[in-house]
Write a structure and sequence with these properties.
The protein is of the alpha+beta class and about 500 residues long. About 35% of the residues lie in helices and about 25% in strands. The protein contains eleven helices and eight strands. Helix 2 runs parallel beside helix 4. The structure holds zinc ion (ZN) (2 copies). One zinc ion binds next to loops. Pfam families: Tim44.
């Protein structure tokens, strides 16, 4: 018998090593997920055949394959058998092995150096925003981001269609040239989801103001009858004449004519059909001047994404350098006699209630519309996309025993239109994914999982409805049950759009 000799030989070590590697490769960590930050596609390794990713594994495989060729035949046979056994074991353990849900949980972790850099960048950005508001009192970061989001959405869903003319006055000649290039000549994108967006810089020049906005997004395209999901990081440069002032909030959001306010009625030359005025890009409103593609991957749309473990749970909270100053302004503006009591009520009535209500709706999956009025359009739609995918797959992402352990204020902003409060929440929940038959797909039904997220609530300046009256089950305007909200969050009882922060706090972003 040669076997005992084999066991004592160096081949055995190699065999064990190879088995470990092959088992590890066949056991991707199965994931759990959450609304908001928990649902962007990973930019890292992918299971769906994207550009980047599995290079390390490929090199390992090649190395093993080369060594394999030099081995005695009986060792080769044993190695092959061990791989087969590993695969069978894997499939048995996964009861036939449906493809697991892989989700990427966004990281909020960073080291001390990047933390400090981030603080400095935030400080500089806030100073520039405040300087811009001094120049243009109607400018609002929240409104500008709404405008950028509308433009992003319209741009990609109408590219290479006649409908793109409705946003022509918001596109520079650079962009119009780009649209005629081969790079842009694909079908319009569908299911455009902006996972995250923020102003990264403001540049004030002699004649122009530039605002740089960073997007993390994904969208679908149809190529050769196959559906692809694209994951992107883009930097958009938006430009406006320095003398121009911000238009009305509604006009900005709806990409309306900056001259007369009529919605989306421009001809191919950019003349408004309502006031007959040629709207020159960048003169009366912001225009998109440049798109810098920073990352791009694509997957066949039948994969749900990839998973990376949660990191950064213990990273220090990114506190805005102006938190104290802005907090004092907030207290003065609202004439808060007992600030501590106010924050207590805000955390309990607004943050915690929204948190519990939203996670319950997410977990129940098919009643996502019940939180329509509590979330901004972007946040609602981004998560609706994921819910739709789960419905298609027949999966539920269950969140149970959600415990909000701790809430820390992180940023407060105020301009002449809106105020916002960003808090960092530290929470834990039992988080697992199962299919319609209750079969476990990923996660853990017993062990709670800790996570942390930054939540930003917005509200219109001058809305003084007390936080103690915040009620997630009611229309914030008319007080009727919030069971008749339309797809765009218009209340079926009072006919008002309810999720712009016009009546009460609305959750605008999760990062
Ligand atoms: Zn007009
Ligand atoms: Zn209502």
């Amino acid at each position: 018998m040669r076997l005992p000799k084999l066991v004592s030989s160096k081949y055995f070590i190699f065999l064990v090593l190879l088995t470990v590697v092959s088992v590890a490769l066949f056991f991707p960590e199965v994931a759990n997920a959450r609304p908001g930050g928990g649902h962007s596609y990973s930019g890292g390794s992918s299971s769906g055949g994207s550009g980047g990713g599995n290079g390390g594994a490929a090199v390992l495989f090649e190395l093993f394959f080369r060594i394999f060729l030099f081995l005695p035949p009986f060792v080769q046979i044993i190695l092959i058998l061990s791989i087969i056994v590993s695969v069978i074991w894997y499939h048995l353990r996964h009861q036939g092995g449906d493809d697991p849900v892989h989700n990427h949980v966004q990281s909020s972790g960073m080291d001390a150096y990047h933390f400090q850099q981030n603080q400095l960048a935030n400080q500089a950005k806030q100073q520039k925003i405040d300087a811009l508001i001094l120049r243009d009192p109607a400018f609002s970061e929240i409104l500008f981001l709404d405008f950028s989001h509308s433009l992003y959405h319209k741009f990609y869903t109408t590219i290479n269609t006649p409908t793109i003319r409705s946003i022509l006055p918001f596109l520079s000649d650079n962009i119009k040239l780009f649209m005629r290039s081969d790079m842009a000549k694909t079908s319009p994108r569908t299911e455009v989801v902006v996972a995250n967006m923020q102003i990264s810089d403001i540049v004030i020049m002699d004649e122009q103001i530039k605002i740089i906005v960073d997007f993390q997004s994904n969208y679908s395209t149809l190529q050769n009858d196959k559906n692809y999901r694209h994951i992107l990081k883009e930097r958009w440069v938006l430009v406006r004449n320095i003398k121009t002032m911000s238009t009305s909030p509604e006009g900005l959001r709806d990409l309306a004519c900056p001259n007369c306010g009529a919605p989306n009625d421009f001809n191919d030359a950019g003349v408004c059909g309502s006031c007959n005025t040629l709207i020159e890009a960048g003169e009366m409103n912001w225009m998109l001047d440049k798109i810098i593609l920073q990352e791009h991957q694509h997957y066949r749309a039948d994969t749900l994404g990839t998973y990376a473990p949660e990191v950064g749970t213990n990273a220090p909270t990114i506190i805005d350098p102006y938190l104290k100053e802005k907090g004092a302004q907030f207290i003065a503006l609202h004439q808060l006699e007992d600030p501590a009591a106010y924050w207590g009520t805000f955390m309990e009535k607004v943050v915690e209630t929204t948190y519990q209500t939203m996670y319950k709706a997410w977990s129940d999956r098919d009643d996502w519309k019940s939180v329509r009025h509590l979330l901004s359009d972007r946040l609602y739609e981004a998560n609706a996309f994921w819910i739709h995918l789960y419905q298609e797959k027949g999966y539920f992402n269950r969140l149970e025993n959600i415990t909000l352990e701790h809430i820390e204020p992180a940023r407060i902003t105020m301009d002449n239109n809106y105020e916002s409060i960003t808090v960092r929440v530290f929470a834990s929940a039992i988080d697992y994914t199962e299919d319609n038959n209750g079969r476990l797909i990923g996660g853990n039904k017993q062990k709670p999982r800790s996570f942390t997220e930054y939540w930003t609530f917005i509200r219109k300046i001058g809305v003084e409805k007390p936080e103690s009256a915040f009620d997630t089950t009611q229309c914030p305007n008319c007080g009727a049950p919030a069971d008749q909200m339309s797809d765009t969050s218009v209340c079926g009882y009072c006919g008002t759009k309810t999720n712009l922060g016009d009546f009460s706090w609305v959750l605008s972003n999760i990062a």
